[in-house]
Amino acid sequence: MENTFLKSASIINIDRKKIRRIRFLTKSTFVLTFDRDDIQFTAGQHITIGTRGSLNQREYSVYSGEQQNYLEILVKEVLDGNVSIQLRNSKPGDLLEVNGPFGSFRLEIKDMYSRKHLFIATGTGISPFHSMVTSYPGIDYTILHGIRYINEAYDKHDYNPKRYITCTSKEKSSGYNGRVTDYLSDYQPEPGTIYYLCGNSSMIFEATGILRNKGVTGDRILREVYF
Ligand SMILES: Cc1cc2nc3c(=O)[nH]c(=O)nc-3n(C[C@H](O)[C@H](O)[C@H](O)COP(=O)(O)OP(=O)(O)OC[C@H]3O[C@@H](n4cnc5c(N)ncnc54)[C@H](O)[C@@H]3O)c2cc1C
Fold first, then answer.
1. Is a pLDDT exceeding 90 seen at residue 159?
2. Is 46 in the pocket of ligand 1 (CB under 6 A)?
3. Separation between Cα atoms, residue 85 and residue 77, nearest integer Å
4. What does the pLDDT read at residue 15?
5. Which of 6, 48, 64, 161 has a CA 20 to 30 Å removed from the CA of 173?
6. Is the CB of 83 under 6 A from ligand 1?
7. Pocket test for ligand 1, best of 33, 41, 51, 58 (most atoms within 8 A of CB)
8. For residue 178, which phi and psi values (nearest 5 degrees)?
């Protein structure tokens, strides 16, 4: 069922989409796959989602690639949360209310293949980067993924192992041991690199300060704050 109305001078589609699959990556984090139909999005954008009949909607970055004929989101269940728990308890066949896409967090099309990209994420903040890399595997990218434990390296096999660096804060691993911001403190920016930051606001605030202090101009830092 589809309903179209005008919001902020743009056409927004509210769609009901059937859940096809729920794939758990850890006890609390899962990939939800649902029908895409005619939703067009650019890798990096987000949609809003609620369970059928619920007044609550939350934003989720699209996890799947632009070419895939389904949509996926990567969700972490938040204790005492609302929508993330409803999504965790949903089943294949249930309907979701989907809105969007929204946002300007995306690759710069004109110099996508001539620039280096440093993608900096915490937790599920890796989701837009998963979509970008799946959609455009030929781009020059490095992902810094801030996680607590190594089992939170969600779908790590989807990335070139030389381009995916985990920064674990609560256990020792073969990647970098420490927070992404510790990694950045020792990092030397390269000219022409564009920086994408996604995740919690304290990481984004701190990482932006570190990069700016190292001479990276604000126009080369793009940010998507989750909470
Ligand atoms: C543009 C955008 C894209 C987003 N994309 C994703 C995504 O791809 N995957 C995803 O899991 N979430 C994403 N989020 C966060 C998501 O929209 C919800 O805030 C989250 O799922 C919690 O919703 P809730 O209704 O369960 O909890 P609520 O009742 O809304 O919130 C409960 C509390 O949890 C905090 N919180 C929210 N997210 C987290 C978190 N990950 N860890 C710890 N505390 C948190 C909130 O600040 C609040 O204090 C995104 C947010 C934005 C703004």
1. yes
2. yes
3. 6
4. 84
5. 64
6. yes
7. 58
8. 145, 180
Task: Report how far apart, in Å, the C-alpha atoms of 68 and of each of 11, 46, 58, 63, 65 are.
Answer: 23, 16, 23, 11, 6
pLDDT at 2: 42
Question: Residue with the nearest Cα to atom 28 of ligand 1?
Answer: 81
Residue whose CA lies nearest to ligand 1 atom number 32: 81
In order of start, what are the domains of the chain with their CATH numbers? 2-102 (2.40.30.10), 109-225 (3.40.50.80)
- CB of 77 within 6 A of ligand 1: the answer is no
User: Ligand 1 atom 42: the closest Cα is on which residue?
Assistant: 78
Which pLDDT tens digit goes with each residue over 38-67? 999 999 999 999 998 888 999 999 999 999
Give DSSP secondary structure letters for 147-196: ESSGGGSTTGGGS-GGGEEEEESSS--SSEES-HHHHHHT----TTEEEE
The whole-number pLDDT of residue 37 equals 93
Assess whether the C-beta atom of 198 lies below 6 angstroms from ligand 1: no
Strand bridging mode 95-102 / 10-24? antiparallel
Q: What is the DSSP code (8-state) at residue 103?
A: -
The pLDDT-based confidence of 7 (bands split at 50, 70, 90) is very low
Using only the alpha carbons of the chain, give its radius of gyration.
18
Q: Which two tokens stand for residue 64?
A: 């799947």
Amino acid 12: pLDDT:
53
Does residue 224's CB lie within 6 angstroms of at least one atom of ligand 1? yes
Rounded mean pLDDT of 65-74?
A: 98
